[in-house]
């Protein structure tokens, strides 16, 4: 059912001001012919559109399966693209590669029309790209903002530029949501090449802010301190300057071209750490302009949020910190990626991985022990509390606190009563069941009302 015209039809709708729909499994006269394997057909369509059309069509189309008389067919919804002209990759931005919808058919675009579209092209920003999922939550992002003292209100997401003019979540929102399909990659190799992979980890599928902090914590463990004794002098030095490494990682994450469907990667070798982000220099910036500190953020929404959360400071400051410790040669530019390579200050033998593993294991063990101790202490305190108070006394304890603090959260109650949150939740449920209290308003802005 899929013909060679599929990509041409999609390109024509991408270049059309209103977008459009394509149906697979329905004949020209409207008869439902059906398709035998809709899932496989859908995957084929996704790959063909992604691989054969430029610029990136990420977030610009959707495919749904429908059934009629026990026959399956597909509906492809295609948005009008923000980076016109779209074209068949193999033919480039030429009349042979560019098509436009005219009435019920398609036709090749003239070179003059192509040039007009290109002159008006809008950069494929995260703000213009629509999120592939519109049912998003942002609890993680809100926690980070609240920790910095920001007030969260009903316009929070719109103020951050995460909602477009049509009221839809954009791709920046997708990256910052509690769950998404994006992960930062960390690979660690035994030697100085990619032959022996000893660790391959993905950090993400959560808010990009959370994934960033996970990445920074991971590299803090890996960037161990080496000691060198020369005569009477004892020198302690990290494998890589920690501030420069941090800035390079954050720059890679903030300036990555997510429209390519690729997230930044960090690779650790026995002699270097290599950070690669998708996309070359943004907005036609030259290398000299880049090193001169001229700022041209690719992803303004991410830059704004990372600045709010003190992950980045002023524009261009990260590069200055890197160049204060390393020369320009650590940067490699290409149209498709930007790579920063930090070589260790002194050559290391391959046993460095053993030291890194020991450091990571020690940290993991300390964390596990702390968690066990906290759990034991909480259990002991809980047992003591419940032995001193019967159930009705505990209910009264919570009730008395709510009378004075009707907007208290579970965490507030637990802290003031020294009960665990699970016990507080159980007692609140019992108080609601017996009609002593009711919840008025939402969980975020509401309060507890005591029933006389």
Automatic annotation (TrEMBL):
SUPFAM superfamilies: Winged helix' DNA-binding domain (SSF46785). It comes from the Archaea. InterPro entries: RecG_C_sf, Schlafen_AlbA_2_dom, Schlafen_AlbA_2_dom_sf, WH-like_DNA-bd_sf, WH_DNA-bd_sf. Pfam families: HATPase_c_4, HTH_24, SLFN_AlbA_2. Residues 6-109 form the Schlafen AlbA-2 domain. This is Schlafen AlbA-2 domain-containing protein. The lineage of its organism: Archaea, Methanobacteriati, Methanobacteriota, Stenosarchaea group, Methanomicrobia.
């Amino acid at each position: 059912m899929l013909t060679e015209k599929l990509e041409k039809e999609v390109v024509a709708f991408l270049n059309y001001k209103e977008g459009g729909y394509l149906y697979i499994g329905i004949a020209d006269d409207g008869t439902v012919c059906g398709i035998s394997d809709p899932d496989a057909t859908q995957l084929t369509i996704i790959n063909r559109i992604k691989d054969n059309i430029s610029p990136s069509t990420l977030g610009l189309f959707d495919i749904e399966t429908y059934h009629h008389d026990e026959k399956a067919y597909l509906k492809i919804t295609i948005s009008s693209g923000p980076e016109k002209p779209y074209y068949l990759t193999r033919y480039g931005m030429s009349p042979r590669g560019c098509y436009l919808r005219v009435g019920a058919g398609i036709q090749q675009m003239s070179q003059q029309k192509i040039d007009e579209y290109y002159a008006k092209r809008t950069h494929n920003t995260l703000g213009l790209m629509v999120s592939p999922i519109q049912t998003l939550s942002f609890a993680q992002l809100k926690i980070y903002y609240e920790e910095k003292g920001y007030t969260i209100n009903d316009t929070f997401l719109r103020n951050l530029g995460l909602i477009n003019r049509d009221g839809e979540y954009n791709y920046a929102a997708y990256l910052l949501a509690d769950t998404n399909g994006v992960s930062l990659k960390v690979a660690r190799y035994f030697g100085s090449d990619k032959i022996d992979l000893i660790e391959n980890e993905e950090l993400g599928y959560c808010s990009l802010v959370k994934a960033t902090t996970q990445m920074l914590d991971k590299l803090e463990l890996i960037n161990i301190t080496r000691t060198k004794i020369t005569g009477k002098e004892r020198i302690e030095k990290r494998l890589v300057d920690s501030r420069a490494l941090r800035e390079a990682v954050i720059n890679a994450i903030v300036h990555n071209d997510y429209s390519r469907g690729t997230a930044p990667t960090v690779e650790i070798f026995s002699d270097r750490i290599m950070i690669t982000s998708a996309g070359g220099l943004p907005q036609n910036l030259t290398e000299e302009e880049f090193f001169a500190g001229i700022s041209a953020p690719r992803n303004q929404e991410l830059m704004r949020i990372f600045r709010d959360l003190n992950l980045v400071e002023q524009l261009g400051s990260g590069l200055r910190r890197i160049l204060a410790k390393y020369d320009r040669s650590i940067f490699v530019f290409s149209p498709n990626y930007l790579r920063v390579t930090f070589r260790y200050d002194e050559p290391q033998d391959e046993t460095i991985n053993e030291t890194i593993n020991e450091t990571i294991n020690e940290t993991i063990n300390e964390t596990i022990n702390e968690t066990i101790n906290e759990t034991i202490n909480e259990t002991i305190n809980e047992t003591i509390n419940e032995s001193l108070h019967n159930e009705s006394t505990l209910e009264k304890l919570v009730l008395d606190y709510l009378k004075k603090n009707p907007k208290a959260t579970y965490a507030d109650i637990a802290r003031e009563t020294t009960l665990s949150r699970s016990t507080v939740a159980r007692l609140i449920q019992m108080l609601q069941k017996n009609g002593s209290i009711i919840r008025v308003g939402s969980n975020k802005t509401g309060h507890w009302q005591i029933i006389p």
